[in-house]
Amino acid sequence: MRSFWGLIPRYILKNKKRIFFMAVGIVLSITLISSLSIMVEALQKSSKDRIVNQAGGTYDIRFETRNYVRAQGLKTDSLVEKVSMVTVFGKYQVPNTNYELELGGYESNITELLNFKLIEGKFPSGGNEIALESWILDALPQKYKVGDKIRLSYTIEYVDSKGKYMPVNMESEFLLVGTFQHVANGFLNKNTAKAYLTKEFVEATAANKNFHYNGYLTVIPKYSIGEGLSQLSSTNVYSDLDFLPSSIKSFMLIAVDVMNLVTKIIFVIIGIVASVIIYNIFNVCISERTKDFGMLRAIGASPRKIKALVLGEGLLLGAIFIPLGILIGNLAIKAIIMVSSGYKDFNGVFSIPKEGVTASVIVGFLSILGGTYSSARKASQISPMEAITSNNNLKLKGRKIKKGIQSTKGIRKKASFTTNMAFLNVSRNKKRFTTTVVSLSITIIMFFTVNYLITNSDPINSFKKNFQGDFTLSTFLTEPGYGLTQDNIDKLNSIDGVKSVSKQKFFRTNVEFPKEGITQEGMDHIKEFSRRSYRLREDFEKGKYQFLTNVEGYVDQDLMRLKEGLLEGAIDLDKMKEEPIAIIIENLNYNNYTSLQVGSKLKIPYIRYDNKGNAGEKTQEVTIGAIVRADMLKNVDPTISSTIILNEKAMEKYLSIEEFQRANILLDKDADYLKVESEIKEITKLARAMEVKSFKEELKTIKKENLERSLIMYSFVSIVAVVSIINLINIMYMNVILRKREVAMMRALGLGSDEVRSMIKTEGMLYGISASMVGSILGILLTYGIFKVGRKVLMAGMTWEFPVMEVIAIFTVTIFITFIASVLPSRKLFTSSIVDSIRGIE
After folding, report:
1. Which residue, 654, 520, 643, 634, is CA-closest to 581?
2. At 265, is the secondary structure helix, strand, or coil?
3. Which of 25, 116, 308, 610 could form a disulfide with 281 if both were Cys (CB 3.0 to 4.6 A apart)?
């Protein structure tokens, strides 16, 4: 040996079995950290894409106005990052269909705010160029392709000097230069396609007209959507603008923020798990080599060199196996993501997030340094003779053994000798026992957390519960011609194979609530809500307190069903048909905004259309006749806190809503599904903006999305579990090796091999029982905490109940695993003679 430092590779090559266990522990621990970083990146990307696709774009706030000059001020406002305006030009009704084209004059930067994806050609740049949403081409009277000329007859609406709407019919020829796709899954009006014209063309075609303008903007990253909305709407500079936040984006961003917080906590926990695992492995391995260090001390090696030798060995192993762990973690989790999603692009398969690499390196080396330095310091402080003659256990001190015996005295009175020895061994090695139980407990806690989140966010279960039939028909529009008439309902009922058709009337509006029926929390919410627009703020200052509320019209059968959840009042069907008497379901989504009484008055604004189709806003006062429990509603919108229910006849009489906005169709078992679907679409094709959803198609899509998310999350928990199990086997194996001389003495005194195995099995079960208890208690408390904090912001309809079956499963599986982990290494004790074991000969 030419150099003292040559001992490092020499020891590594000499002790291949020990190094193997150490390497496995390091690799799996680092795999855990790097796979978490990949998972977080995948979930964040998935969430971002989902927000854009649901909201229809990246914008934070949408605004409407007729004051073009005031709106232009937003482009220089220091609060606004991006803004784009759309001139609402006109509408073209596709003949003999329920489809229409919405012509708008767009600014060139609209694609930065709306989810417009070019399919073919280009977006218009000037003149009479036009681009259409690709799906509308199949509905047009002629088959057009990019490069063709299209002649459209359309209606534009502007306001004259007296504020009166002036519809004008026009006809123009356009050059089709491109097709695009606009994904906006959160909006139900799927029958209106966008037609993209340039702003300059619209202004030149209809000069000096007072048009209606829509706009989209993002606030600077320093502010949230709510803060940006509050500041913009609080100034009189924009008093002519109505600001509407992207409620879908706002709600989903809250969920994303919660998810990011949870993942950061998990990152810290995983870092602790990895540190504990690496520390355990190094601590045990170094403790086992106490005799080797004693010999080095005897031939002149200083304590400092002993520590340097051990640290050097740890750093060398880290330099080899930490990068390997990062690579394996990256490949493992990305392989799972690709398999689950069907994604076949391998270009980024070796791309690893910098955060994951940094965390892996820091946690890995700090854990190695901690695990090696602690043990090396202890080994370097004892005398060479003590180290050579030791039994490799640096913790065998009489006071601690006595204390351990006394702490388990009550349990051991009626226990066997081997059980007593198991308790004694656990008491003598408290640090090793504690760190192992901690790593196992964290795995259990993570299982509880992930299982709870997936169960509550299970879209399949939620979909099956909320999808009221084999087909659903729905629209948000109450304008005549957009809903289902009674004749439509009768035709749907007459389709061969249809068992039943349930129907509802529906619209959403800002309902005025009485001050005495509003809680302080509710008043704070209204104050915040009123900052969305100048008009809402003005209403609040005048004492008009409004909540965004669903107003629904039920038939008699559905009203009778609500009696099961009656809290106060009575549901009188006859009165509800003739008088404006309503049922209220308040404080949905765990809010505490209102405390209404039977007899309270509510003011519902609604739109009344005259014979010419002109709209005018009116208000109807209704009286609360009954209060019903929140769980009587099947499908709860997370953005609302109350639902008002009227008889559908009263909706027609007092709110001028004649058509039905929702219908649920249930089929017979032997119905021809495709044939029924075709007939439903044929009947509803003239009910404009009525969306038809098929249970089978929706379920298929949701299952795919759920599979991807569940596989990613459960695969991560599986990696955690595998790491912890291998760590447990490592620990149990090292425990056996360290106590080889001790067990040999017991065998020499007459202890049988079956008794030795029984003692070790009992120790393993003690690990399992302790980890199960600690992990289950903390896991249950954590899931309850998530429920209390996240039920308002994380997901709608979130529930919690004591997880009895999960606890039973955890105890069973954990105890079984620890039992097996203790059986496997116990065989090592009987591979050598008692004499050789006592002498310490391997």
Report:
1. 654
2. helix
3. 25
Decide: helix, strand or coil at residue 345: coil
Indicate whether 24 pLDDT > 80.
no
Number of other CB atoms surrounding residue 414 within 10 Å: 7
Partners of 474 in beta bridges: 662, 691
Is residue 482 scored above 70 in pLDDT? yes
Looking at the DSSP assignment, which residues form a beta bridge with residue 645?
552, 583
Q: Would you say the pTM of this structure is higher than 0.85?
A: no
- Residues, the chain, total? 842
Beta strands in 518-614 (DSSP E): 545-554, 566-569, 581-585, 601-609
Residue 594 has pLDDT above 90, yes or no: yes
Distance separating alpha carbons of residues 754 and 11, to the nearest angstrom: 35
647 DSSP β-pair partners: 554
Q: What is the mean pLDDT of residues 640-667?
A: 91
Which residues, in sequence order, are bridge partners of residue 82?
Answer: 218
User: Please, are residues 144 and 205 in contact by the beta-carbon 8 Å criterion?
Assistant: no
Strands 116-121 vs 581-585: parallel, antiparallel or unpaired? unpaired
pLDDT at 431 over 50: yes
Task: Give the per-residue SS3 of 299-318.
Answer: CCCCHHHHHHHHHHHHHHHH
Q: Tell the burial category of 128 from Cβ atoms under 10 Å away from its Cβ (0-12, 13-18, 19+).
A: middle
CB–CB of 593/519 below 8 Å?
Answer: yes
Predicted confidence at residue 346, as pLDDT, reads: 47
Which H or E run contains 152? strand 149-159
**Rounded-to-integer distance, Cα 274 and Cα 318, Å:** 13
Comparing C-alpha atoms, which of 8, 29, 31, 32 is closest to residue 317? 8
d(CA 382, CA 303): 9
DSSP state of 135: G
Positive/negative CA dihedral, 251, 255, 257, 258:
positive
Alpha-carbon distance of 457 to 71, in angstroms, equals 40
> How many C-beta atoms lie closer than 10 Å to residue 662's C-beta?
19
Give the start-to-end residue ranges of the domains of the chain: 1-48+256-390, 61-245, 396-453+707-782+800-842, 476-689
Q: Which residues pair with 664 in a beta bridge?
A: 472, 502
pLDDT tens-digit series, residues 93-104: 888 777 888 999
- The residue behind tokens 């038939």 is 555
Three-class DSSP labels, 479-531:
CCCCCECHHHHHHHHHCCCEEEEEEEEEEEEEEEECHHHECHHHHHHHHHHHH
Which of 295-299, 394-398, 808-812 is least confident? 394-398
For residue 479 the two structure tokens come to 């304008």
Query: What whole-number distance in Å separates Cα of residue 447 and Cα of residue 442?
Result: 9
User: What's the token pair of residue 233?
Assistant: 């709407």
Local structure of residue 136 (DSSP, 8 states): G
Nearest to 232 by CA among 222, 250, 244, 214: 244
Side chain identity at residue 360, one-letter code: S
Q: Which two three-digit tokens encode residue 806?
A: 């999960």
- For 600, the token pair is 């309270």
pLDDT over 70 (residue 285):
no
Range with the lowest mean pLDDT among 73-77, 125-129, 314-318? 314-318
Angle between helices 740-748 and 753-790 (to 10 degrees): 140
User: pLDDT value at position 611?
Assistant: 65
The residue assigned the tokens 């392709």 is 145
Distance CA 571, CA 520 (A): 29
Indicate the burial class of 99 (C-beta count within 10 angstroms; 0-12, 13-18, 19 or more): buried
What is the number of other CB atoms lying within 10 angstroms of the CB of residue 78? 6
How many whole angstroms separate alpha carbon 638 and alpha carbon 416?
59
The pairing of beta strand 242-245 with beta strand 61-65 = antiparallel
Is the distance from CB of 639 to CB of 532 less than 8 angstroms?
no
